[in-house]
Amino acid sequence: MKKVTDINWNAWDPKEKATLMFIQQNNKLLLIEKKRGFGAGYYNAPGGRLEKGETWQECAIRETQEELCITPLDPQHAGTLMFHFIDGHSIHGEVFTATKFEGTPTETDEALPIWFHVDELPYHNMWADDPLWYPKMIAGEKFTGHFTFDGKTMLDYELL
Ligand SMILES: Nc1nc2c([nH]c(=O)n2[C@H]2C[C@H](O)[C@@H](COP(=O)(O)OP(=O)(O)OP(=O)(O)O)O2)c(=O)[nH]1
């Protein structure tokens, strides 16, 4: 299925569930250069797969602790992303934001922390859908995105 309208997103059953955590302070976003795993080499937010028994928010906090050695404070739910890959892979992502955190962002095996001004984001080295929904997230507007991908190539999308 290549078009987002080919998919019944209400009945869609993702193979994976994952989170993203965006720390935003003074018009800057704390991103990572992802060093390994899915999307390695891209800039992204810290995040990763939901583990059994944890909530989305607990996952977003845990992954940020694991990848950057910091603890986001008072995370807010920002949006929902659903990715369908034509090879059968699929990921449901929940996006969180926070303006405060404890600790010092530190490089780990998984991630190198880098602050970017919101007007100078490295979209050329990010997932193709990111420029579509980052502006809403930065503006604090809730969003839901549906996307079809062939590998790294975005085929179709709708943003609600
Ligand atoms: N910004 C953005 N993030 C995406 C896109 N697609 C996608 O999977 N992600 C995120 C969701 C997850 O946080 C991350 C994939 O992480 P993952 O946890 O499934 O994979 P991983 O290989 O890093 O595995 P692990 O850390 O759980 O061991 O990438 C996208 O199009 N844009």
- Fraction in helix: 10-25%
How many distinct beta strands? 11
CATH A-level architecture: Alpha-Beta Complex
> Domains counted in the coordinates: how many?
1
CATH homologous superfamily (4th level) name: Nucleoside Triphosphate Pyrophosphohydrolase
Q: What ions, cofactors and ligands are bound? A: 8-OXO-2'-deoxyguanosine-5'-triphosphate
Mind summarizing the main beta sheet?
9 strands, mixed
Reading off the top of the CATH hierarchy, the class is best stated as Alpha Beta
Rg estimate, integer Å: 15 Å
Strand % is 35-45%
N-to-C span: 20 Å
Poorly predicted runs of 5 or more residues: none
Give a short summary of the structure.
The chain is 14% helix and 43% strand.
Provide structural commentary.
- The chain is mainly beta.
- It has a single domain, classed as Nucleoside Triphosphate Pyrophosphohydrolase.
- 14% of the residues lie in helices and 43% in strands.
- The protein has two helices and eleven strands; from the N terminus they run E-E-E-E-H-E-E-E-E-E-H-E-E.
- It has helices at 56-68, 130-139; strands at residues 16-25, 28-34, 43-44, 47-49, 71-73, 76-85, 90-98, 100-102, 111-117, 143-150, 153-159.
- Strands 1, 2, 3, 4, 6, 7, 9, 10 and 11 form a nine-stranded mixed beta sheet that branches.
- The radius of gyration is 15 Å and the shape is globular.
- It starts with 15 loop residues before the first strand and ends with a strand.
- The model has no long low-confidence stretch (mean pLDDT 97).
- Bound molecules: 8-OXO-2'-deoxyguanosine-5'-triphosphate (8DG).
- 8-OXO-2'-deoxyguanosine-5'-triphosphate (8DG) is lined by residues 16, 18, 20, 37-39, 44, 47-49, 83, 91, 93, 127, 129-130.
- Residues 16, 18, 20, 37-39, 44, 47-49, 83, 91, 93, 127, 129-130 line the site of 8-OXO-2'-deoxyguanosine-5'-triphosphate.
